[in-house]
Structure formats: C-alpha cells, structure tokens
C-alpha cells in the first residue's frame, strides 16, 4: 500500500510533480493542469510529500535523505522502468535535484524557485516587493490575506483567487509536527554539496523570481549558470510564488519544456 498520497491524470509520457514546503499536491495541479487541457499525451502524477497533504510520515523518517528515499521508492514502483520527467517547486525542486542523482532514466527537470541551500542562514535572499495592479478587498479567507501580500509580488484579484485555490489547500491541511520541528541539518540532504556535480547530463529548466525572499536567486545562478545542461531564467516581476506572479511566463517555458 502506498504511504504517499497522489493523484494521477492522463496517459503517455510520464511527469511527476512535487510541491513546496507546507503545501500539498493541489498547488501543482492548479499551476500545471491547465497546460494539459489541449495536450493529453502525458501521464501526470502529483504527489504529497510525506508528512504534508495526505501522505503518511513513517516513524522511521528523520531527515530529507529519508524523505528522498520514500519518494524514490514510490517513483520506482510507479514508473515501470520507463523514462520520466520531474517538475518541482521550492523544496520540491530540491527533492527533484536529489532524485536526479539517483535515477539514470530521468528525461529532464522543470524547477521553479528551487531550494539549493537548505540552511536558511547560508542563502542570499532578496527584498520582497509588491506591485499593486488593483485594489483587492478580500471576502473569503481574510485571515490569509496578509500572507498573500507577504508572498506575492503581483497583487490583483486574479492572483488573490489563484493563491486561494493553489496555496490555501495545503496551508489549511497543515503538516506533521516533524516539519515544524525539523532542524536545518536534517532539512539538508547529506550530499547537498555534491548535487550539481552529480547532475551532468540531465537537462534542467529553472525559473527564478527576482524578488524571492524565501530562497533568493543568486545562489541558484552561481551554481547553475555555467553548466551546459541548465537553462536558467530570472523573471523580473516575480517572487517565491512565481507561478502565480507570472503565469504567462510559466506557460511559455513549461510548454517549451514538455515539447522538447
């Protein structure tokens, strides 16, 4: 029986989607399923990270290495030794990088705002910026409006609606206490400093937000820019919630990714 909760759609080329910390699979479904309304030639598996959403956290899990092993086993059971792609946001992107070192049959990666340094104090972060496109007066979920303003750059009724549909399901669901209490040492993959040396042949498309105060963008550029297998784009009007801030750019780059 799977301890990892997931939702699956379509058939064809296989893509796994891994959400960010404190969220659940609904965020990635909201971000990416619209791409497949006119292209049904992909099998999409959206999963909840153990201890988040509806995925069970085994008592034996102590750190990100253990989380990675759980997801590795899940993918091994569901991919039938076929090639597949990975798509991840934030911590989910960090896990995708880890998985790319374990699987020889990963076709490519698509990452938005990935963690590359687990220890917060070691990250180069940006100042958050708010661009108010129009006045937004919240009617529902008023208690989350401040978080929306703290996390989004583009402020509009449309982005507030997208935030409620993509981010709030995970926030309202909550996480296992394991994630609340995890130390930075346990949050870090034990081989973090070797990640990019071990990913030499897998093509990676990476989108970063100019005003990302959670993971920044400068560390990612330093680690990725000189590597031929990494295509890195810095979006000028986004923060950490890049898929909500610049959905048109996300659509363009993801369309190129799945068609490559």
UniProtKB/TrEMBL annotation:
Organism: Enterococcus gallinarum
Keyword flag Hydrolase: yes
UniProt entry tagged with the keyword Hydrolase: yes
Residues annotated as domain AB hydrolase-1: 14-247
One MF annotation (Gene Ontology) recorded for this entry: hydrolase activity
One Pfam family named in its UniProt record: Abhydrolase_1
Keywords: Hydrolase
Domain of life from the UniProt record: Bacteria
Name this polypeptide is given: Alpha/beta hydrolase
């Amino acid at each position: 029986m799977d301890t990892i909760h997931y939702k699956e759609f379509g058939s064809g080329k296989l893509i796994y989607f891994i959400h960010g910390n404190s969220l659940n699979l609904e965020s990635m479904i909201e971000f990416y399923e619209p791409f497949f309304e006119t292209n049904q030639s992909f099998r999409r598996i959206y999963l909840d990270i153990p201890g988040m959403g509806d995925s069970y956290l085994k008592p034996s899990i102590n750190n990100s290495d253990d989380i990675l092993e759980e997801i590795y086993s899940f993918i091994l059971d569901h991919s039938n030794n076929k090639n597949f792609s990975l798509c991840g946001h934030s911590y989910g992107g960090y896990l995708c990088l880890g998985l790319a070192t374990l699987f020889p049959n990963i076709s490519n990666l698509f990452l938005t705002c990935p963690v590359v340094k687990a220890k917060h104090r070691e990250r180069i972060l940006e100042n958050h910026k708010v661009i108010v496109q129009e006045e937004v007066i919240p009617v529902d979920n008023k208690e989350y409006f401040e978080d929306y303003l703290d996390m989004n750059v583009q402020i509009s009724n449309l982005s507030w609606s997208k935030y409620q549909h993509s981010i709030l399901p995970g926030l309202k669901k909550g996480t296992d206490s394991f994630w609340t209490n995890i130390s930075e040492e346990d949050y870090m993959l034990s081989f973090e400093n070797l990640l990019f040396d071990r990913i030499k042949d897998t093509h990676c498309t990476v989108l970063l937000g100019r005003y990302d105060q959670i993971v920044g963008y400068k560390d990612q550029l330093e680690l990725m820019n000189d590597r031929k297998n990494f295509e890195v784009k810095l979006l000028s009007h986004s923060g950490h919630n890049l898929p909500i801030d610049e959905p048109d750019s996300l659509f363009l780059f993801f369309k190129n990714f799945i068609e490559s």
